[in-house]
Amino acid sequence: MAGIAAQIAAMRSAFPAMRLFAEGRWGCAWEGPLVGLGRPYIVRVTHTVSATLGRCDLGWRSIIPRAQVISPDLVAECGGRPPHVYGIKPHPDLCVFDPHAPHREWRAGMLIAESYVLWVARWLASYELWTVTGKWSGPERHPAPKDAAATAPCPPAIPATAASPAAIGRVAEAEGTEGSGPILRAATEGRLPSLLLDW
Amino acid sequence: MTYMGGFQPSITDALLADVARKVQLSPTNYRLAIERYRIINEWLDREGSVLRGKVRLMYPQGSMATGTTVSSRLEHDEFDIDLMAELADEFRGWHPRDILDTLFDAINGEEGSRYHGKVERMTRCVQVQYEGMHIDVTPATLIAGRVARVSHICHSKREKPRAEDHRPVANPWGFGEWFKDQMPLPLSEGARMSTLAKASEAVPVEEQPELHERSLPVIATQLVKRWRNKKYDGREGRCPPSVLLSCLIGERSGHLLAAGKVQRSLHATLLDLVIYILAQFEAAERVGRLIHRTNPACPGDEVLTDRWPAAGRDQRQFIDDLEDFAAKLDLLGRDDLSLAQRNELLSDMFGERAAALAMEDLRKRLDEQARGGNVLHRLGTGAVLAAPAIAATPTAKPASSGVRAAPRSTSYGSDEG
């Protein structure tokens, strides 16, 4: 498995404009411009390596990276839901690889900057071409309903306790995250942190 | 397009090249045009033809000679192929009306023969109609003592008195050679099209070069002509002639070539040429004149602006059109445009069909690359490299250090869920 430091170093080298804005033992997250064909999009990429964060079970989110287009608003732009996304509020998650592919398209040993981010860029290119031609580009798979249920985001858990400053401090120490108040508050309350749904 | 030295084209360049590819003769139609050219030549020399043994040379002129053929129609393919038929010296003394009528008779032939009923006698040529294509054969006689291929052609309006017919001087072969001489070598190594092999009667035309084998001003010429066709579609009267546009483009390209300045971007080349053409028309208008150009290969005799512009309003309208073209091209080059915005601009400039075909070509290339696991990205931005030649690269090996190949992946997820 590629460590978080290796992921950060590879991203800094290949995509220096992607700003690392959260980092901890749980993983890390970047935000910055990516281009599909010509126009830049502001994209957030989240990489988690921990099965839990505070009191929260991250479930499938601990297995795969995630990408969301922050700007422009894709749903508003195309007047509905673009293909190959899940969840649309406030920003849809892009489905850039098949988690059930027999040859395992994403593997934990991969560097995000050398694989996942490039898939995101291709998704953006395919999206732009879809807005003009109505057709998607490249291989695609539409999961069966059972398949979809296995990969769809879970609803946020009910908060177990209110987050006191001390509790947040304990989670911060355990997770190695200090820079993200909203994440820590959510994780302390047992909610899925906003980083993992939306910042 | 292929760019040497690891240079990668922008999305704007890739789309403009796709539009040019879509409005030119397809390889199939190009071969068909060459075959028809060969057959007409043989037909004129058939037993019983009034011109048997009297056509000394046939050679392509106009866009076929300069490699800038584009469809003359917006919503379907229709190509005009121009040939010169150089007649024997005995025709030098003939009246132009008789020459054109004789050529018409020779091609039209007897009832039931190959071309009978598909031929039309025009003012300066004889036109053979095919589906999606017509071939204009212009009869000419060489003028003794002049440089290569300076000829008399024929001008004869059937509805006008015979006394008004005349024999203009022209050198379309010389113009084609001059135009090619002004062009820089293509960014990828490729043969320049040679259109004249002096030894044979029917001059062989080489295989049409791939788009990436042409220099950028040649491709830009096709785009300017396509834009002109779109702009004048449905307008009354003549449009700016292709030979004038090619002359102005040749002038600018020759100046840049002599100065050692060679553009590496199709978009920059096209915009520069449009601005140059605009400046030439504005300069003429400022001094209260109409633009005037002669054939650089026949400067004393052949005026390229003899039929257009006919009046200041023609010139003014074209200046307005060129200003609009330059503004839209400038906008097309902006980095922050969505593909939908680019599509709208391309449709406006070159026609909806050409833009839609270009977009679909781009989509198909990305689709094939992605299915083959050959998508290349620019490091730093992630931008997909959208150039056709790179798409045709058989391996995913990066073309330069700033490029990375992505592993294969499958877009996943329900459209509904």
Would you mind describing this structure in some detail?
The complex is a heterodimer of chains A (199) and B (417). With 199 residues, chain A is of the alpha+beta class. Chain A is 32% helix and 20% strand. Chain A has helices at 4-14, 74-78, 116-133, 145-151, 165-175, 181-188, 194-197; strands at 19-24, 27-35, 40-48, 52-53, 56-57, 66-71, 85-86, 93-94, 140-141. In chain B, 41% of the residues lie in helices and 11% in strands. Chain B has helices at residues 11-23, 27-44, 63-66, 96-108, 172-182, 216-232, 242-258, 266-286, 312-332, 339-350, 352-371, 388-391; strands at residues 55-61, 79-87, 119-121, 126-130, 133-142, 151-153, 169-170, 376-378, 403-405, 411-412. In chain B, strands 1, 2, 3, 4, 5, 6 and 7 form a seven-stranded mixed beta sheet that branches. Chain B has a two-stranded antiparallel sheet with strand order 8-9. The two termini of chain B are 39 Å apart. Classes of the chains: A alpha+beta (199), B alpha+beta (417). At the A-B interface, strand 2, strand 7, helix 3 and strand 9 of A face helix 10, helix 11 and strand 10 of B. Strand 9 of chain A pairs parallel with strand 10 of chain B.
